[in-house]
Protein backbone atom coordinates (compact mmCIF):
# COMPACT_ATOMS: atom_id res chain seq x y z
CA UNK A 1 0.00 0.00 0.00
CA UNK A 2 1.28 3.50 -0.77
CA UNK A 3 0.28 7.03 0.13
CA UNK A 4 1.44 10.44 -1.14
CA UNK A 5 0.80 13.72 0.69
CA UNK A 6 1.91 17.15 -0.56
CA UNK A 7 3.49 19.18 2.28
CA UNK A 8 4.39 22.69 1.12
CA UNK A 9 6.73 22.32 -1.87
CA UNK A 10 7.75 18.81 -0.72
CA UNK A 11 5.99 15.44 -0.82
CA UNK A 12 5.67 12.98 2.06
CA UNK A 13 5.13 9.37 0.94
CA UNK A 14 4.64 6.10 2.77
CA UNK A 15 4.74 2.44 1.80
CA UNK A 16 4.42 -0.86 3.56
CA UNK A 17 7.16 -3.50 3.59
CA UNK A 18 6.54 -7.06 2.49
CA UNK A 19 7.84 -10.03 4.47
CA UNK A 20 11.31 -11.01 3.22
CA UNK A 21 12.49 -7.48 2.46
CA UNK A 22 14.84 -6.28 5.20
CA UNK A 23 14.48 -8.91 7.88
CA UNK A 24 11.61 -10.00 10.11
CA UNK A 25 8.59 -7.70 10.09
CA UNK A 26 7.78 -6.11 13.44
CA UNK A 27 5.68 -3.09 14.34
CA UNK A 28 7.76 -0.05 13.38
CA UNK A 29 9.81 -1.57 10.56
CA UNK A 30 6.83 -2.74 8.51
CA UNK A 31 6.63 0.56 6.61
CA UNK A 32 8.85 3.40 5.37
CA UNK A 33 8.23 7.10 5.11
CA UNK A 34 9.82 8.89 2.16
CA UNK A 35 10.47 12.61 1.99
CA UNK A 36 10.99 14.28 -1.39
CA UNK A 37 13.02 17.32 -0.43
CA UNK A 38 13.19 20.72 -2.08
CA UNK A 39 17.00 20.81 -1.86
CA UNK A 40 20.04 18.85 -0.76
CA UNK A 41 20.34 21.21 2.21
CA UNK A 42 16.80 20.48 3.36
CA UNK A 43 17.43 16.73 3.07
CA UNK A 44 20.72 17.07 5.01
CA UNK A 45 19.00 18.93 7.86
CA UNK A 46 16.04 16.53 8.13
CA UNK A 47 18.29 13.46 7.80
CA UNK A 48 20.55 14.69 10.62
CA UNK A 49 17.59 15.22 12.95
CA UNK A 50 15.81 11.95 12.18
CA UNK A 51 18.93 9.76 12.25
CA UNK A 52 20.13 11.25 15.58
CA UNK A 53 19.93 8.41 18.10
CA UNK A 54 18.93 5.96 15.37
CA UNK A 55 20.77 4.17 12.57
CA UNK A 56 22.00 5.45 9.21
CA UNK A 57 21.14 2.74 6.67
CA UNK A 58 22.50 4.59 3.60
CA UNK A 59 24.22 7.99 3.93
CA UNK A 60 22.85 10.77 1.75
CA UNK A 61 24.68 10.70 -1.57
CA UNK A 62 24.29 11.39 -5.26
CA UNK A 63 22.98 8.29 -7.03
CA UNK A 64 23.17 6.82 -10.51
CA UNK A 65 19.48 7.62 -11.09
CA UNK A 66 20.12 11.36 -10.78
CA UNK A 67 18.95 11.98 -7.23
CA UNK A 68 20.39 12.76 -3.82
CA UNK A 69 19.20 9.82 -1.72
CA UNK A 70 19.72 8.26 1.70
CA UNK A 71 17.88 6.26 4.33
CA UNK A 72 17.87 5.86 8.10
CA UNK A 73 15.92 4.40 11.00
CA UNK A 74 14.99 6.92 13.70
CA UNK A 75 15.35 6.31 17.43
CA UNK A 76 11.76 4.99 17.52
CA UNK A 77 12.44 2.33 14.85
CA UNK A 78 10.70 4.12 11.96
CA UNK A 79 12.37 3.80 8.53
CA UNK A 80 12.89 7.03 6.57
CA UNK A 81 14.00 7.59 2.95
CA UNK A 82 15.09 10.95 1.57
CA UNK A 83 15.15 11.86 -2.11
CA UNK A 84 15.97 15.09 -3.90
CA UNK A 85 16.18 15.43 -7.70
CA UNK A 86 19.51 16.83 -8.86
What does this structure look like?
There is one protein chain. By secondary structure, this protein is mainly beta. It has one domain: 2,3-Dihydroxybiphenyl 1,2-Dioxygenase, domain 1 (Roll). 14% of the residues lie in helices and 48% in strands. It has one helix spanning 40-51; strands at residues 2-7, 10-16, 31-36, 55-62, 67-73, 79-85. Strands 1-2-3-6-5-4 form a six-stranded mixed beta sheet, covered by helices on one side. The longest helix is centred in the middle third of the chain and has 12 residues, at 40-51. The termini are far apart.
List keywords for this structure.
2,3-Dihydroxybiphenyl 1,2-Dioxygenase, domain 1, 6-stranded mixed beta sheet, 6 strands, mainly beta, 86 residues
Task: Offer a quick outline of the entry.
The chain is mainly beta. The protein has one helix at residues 40-51, and strands at residues 2-7, 10-16, 31-36, 55-62, 67-73, 79-85.
CATH class annotation:
Alpha Beta
CATH superfamily: 2,3-Dihydroxybiphenyl 1,2-Dioxygenase, domain 1
Radius of gyration: 13 Å
Percent of residues in helical segments? Answer: 10-25%
H/E series, N to C? EEEHEEE
The second-level CATH architecture is Roll
Mean pLDDT: 85
Inertia-based shape: globular
Itemize the secondary structure elements and their pairings.
Blueprint: E1 2-7, E2 10-16, E3 31-36, H1 40-51, E4 55-62, E5 67-73, E6 79-85
Parallel strand pairs: 3-6
Antiparallel strand pairs: 1-2, 2-3, 4-5, 5-6
Amino acid sequence: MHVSLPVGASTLMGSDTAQGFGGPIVVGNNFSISIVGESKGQCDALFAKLSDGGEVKMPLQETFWGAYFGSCRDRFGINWMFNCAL
